[in-house]
Amino acid sequence: MNASEFRRRGKEMVDYVADYIEGIEGRQVYPDVEPGYLRPLIPTSAPQEPDKYEDIVSDIEKIIMPGVTHWHSPYFFAYFPTASSYPAMLADMLCGAIGCIGFSWAASPACTELETVMMDWLGKMLQLPEAFLAEKAGEGGGVIQGSASEATLMSLLAARAKVTKRLQAASPGLTEAAVLEKLVAYSSDQVVATLGTTSCCSFDRLSEVGPICNKEGMWLHIDAAYAGSAFICPEFRHLLNGVEFADSFNFNPHKWLLVNFDCSAMWVKKRADLTGAFKLDPLYLKHSHQDSGLITDYRHWQLPLGRRFRSLKLWFVCRMYGVTGLQAYIRKHVQLAHEFESFVHQDPRFEICAEVTLGLVCFRLKGSNKLNEALLERINGAKKIHLVPCHLRDKFVLRFAICSRVVESAHVQLAWEHIRGLATDLLAAGME
Amino acid sequence: MNASEFRRRGKEMVDYVADYIEGIEGRQVYPDVEPGYLRPLIPTSAPQEPDKYEDIVSDIEKIIMPGVTHWHSPYFFAYFPTASSYPAMLADMLCGAIGCIGFSWAASPACTELETVMMDWLGKMLQLPEAFLAEKAGEGGGVIQGSASEATLMSLLAARAKVTKRLQAASPGLTEAAVLEKLVAYSSDQVVATLGTTSCCSFDRLSEVGPICNKEGMWLHIDAAYAGSAFICPEFRHLLNGVEFADSFNFNPHKWLLVNFDCSAMWVKKRADLTGAFKLDPLYLKHSHQDSGLITDYRHWQLPLGRRFRSLKLWFVCRMYGVTGLQAYIRKHVQLAHEFESFVHQDPRFEICAEVTLGLVCFRLKGSNKLNEALLERINGAKKIHLVPCHLRDKFVLRFAICSRVVESAHVQLAWEHIRGLATDLLAAGME
């Protein structure tokens, strides 16, 4: 495919993408396929000679779409949101074209420098303490990771390297294994200090945990993967109070801040803690500026060597929405969650199972777990909307998460009417 | 930005991308900027109100491009190639629009199932032993990781979990820390068993290492990050002989197989070794098919929970190039490397420092390391072409890697004439 064919096919694809998103409400949110559906539909091996592009395009609707769970449908209320916006998609096209691998400053200075500044923009939007920002040429700074899991793993490894050095300095001769045996990672049943758990979006009390960690010389990592985006709104910022005690902090703009996956934002107070644990310097990666103290080589901040130009997505999204646009987006989702909450409150057969703070409502029918399992089965079997459950203190609970960029009050109302109707049928069938 | 504006801006971006790639030869391959160049060019915080899209677009050429190292320029001969092709970019647009997070089969069945089949396609192109394929519903299969580092880490963790279980079964009461202290990971100075090292593209002897590992019950992971793509050509497949002894194998189609970053292909003989080490099953991720034995939940195969629909890129690329097209691409690059090698051989001032097997030529001026450091400095200072060095047995060596999709014989000739000229100047200045 040459450039002129790409111009033609690329523009067709832009239209396909726009058609898909404009028409997503008309697609069944959860697919009908059974496991193994796809293999019989395609050849057992790659073609020797090129296929026609038209055939690939027609296979998208024939083979791929019937097996897609439509995460961006306004009837998708499962898991947590995954971000999607047109500005982020435009930025990703540019990212693919530049196609640099930004493991060092020299490998593409713009890739590193835009990331550092975007992480400052984002940190300021969250009113992070200055110690986390790179701006003042201090010791802190931010980095884009692929996922919150990677950010957590990086924190654990950095914490381990730091404490091992400290213990070995205090007791020379101590082996690394002996240190490892003594190390303890404290976590709740939702792991590390968490703001906005996946099950029910609950919040750990940082102002209690934080001072203890600081006093005992323990590394404090805070994971606010989903909830973090909300902290750009002043009315939710108090949920982040205590972040000043943390060594590292992470949230995922790719969940709720309109930046397509992957873009997991992580900040540390002391960049040397990360780079000290992971420094990798073979000659082929060295460059003339690296010892100047002026530059950042992000390969020392992450597990993989390679990295895409992901800050372009943040840049496009922040500029095309503006802070007020992003705040309005968060507020709309929270408002819709409260709307759903009020519906549940109005029906005495149901109960709310956890405080609704952001965009997640945990609810259930009063009654047995079995009853609620049956309700969820009917909901997901009908495939008009899509939900997933969780366990809260041994209770089987339904999660209603506001997810789609295009979800409106009308969709939430329809979803609720649908759930109520299925519950009525179920109760009429004598289940308790 | 609504759908109709995206249609317009998306098509403009398609043209920008095509213009960029068509015109990339005219851009200076390595940028002129100094560390810290970008921060003064953009505001210190995100705009409160939306910017105009036109302003963002004009900032691409004003702010971003001056700091880009152009990895896809035909004058870029540094590091290793990173893949880029129009079909992969089209697939990535579709991937962004679908925007599913395929951590489980249910989270988007097409995402999981296409990946499994594409990994079989790719495995067959490499003539991997059947034990690595998922096709026959055996114990093996493939997964797309983000990077070779992640694949290596997954192998190490899986190997550790496996041997820990074995030792604890043999000696109940053995603590995990005691096991860890006994574990040894063998590697060369280029890490794990490697086919095509980064420094000089050398190859470990699998047929010697493999049987020892198997006999001693040691996990054998083979990393062929760069070289793996070449094994789709029958004349290079012998370099992979011995893979039948491996427990896991990995290479990066995102390096040399025209699939844009990230797409790191990893196969295991026993998927239970991976999933046994990493199984994560909270209720909100469970689905009705997961215990059927019929499906794959890729979250158990990797570190992050989230994952994009990356197999679309493989699908588009395999179909648009066909196996013969991909083979021709590899062969052209290898041919260009040999062409450069023959130029070096013809100039008695230079020497070749390692066998040229694939697309990398390691060479230097006969003489001191200092001389070669000075030569590299002049080459990269002139910014007509871009190279990086390596150390081979204490010698400072220049690496000439064939990288760009659009590099032709004429570019290689120009690059060589340029290098020769700079060497002549350097030697005339009396350096030895």
From TrEMBL, chains A, B:
Signal peptide: none annotated. PANTHER family: AROMATIC-L-AMINO-ACID DECARBOXYLASE (PTHR11999:SF167), GROUP II PYRIDOXAL-5-PHOSPHATE DECARBOXYLASE (PTHR11999). Homodimer. InterPro entries: Aromatic_deC (IPR010977), PyrdxlP-dep_de-COase (IPR002129), PyrdxlP-dep_Trfase (IPR015424), PyrdxlP-dep_Trfase_major (IPR015421), PyrdxlP-dep_Trfase_small (IPR015422), Pyridoxal-P_BS (IPR021115). Its EC number is 4.1.1.28. Pathway: Catecholamine biosynthesis; dopamine biosynthesis; dopamine from L-tyrosine: step 2/2. This is Aromatic-L-amino-acid decarboxylase.
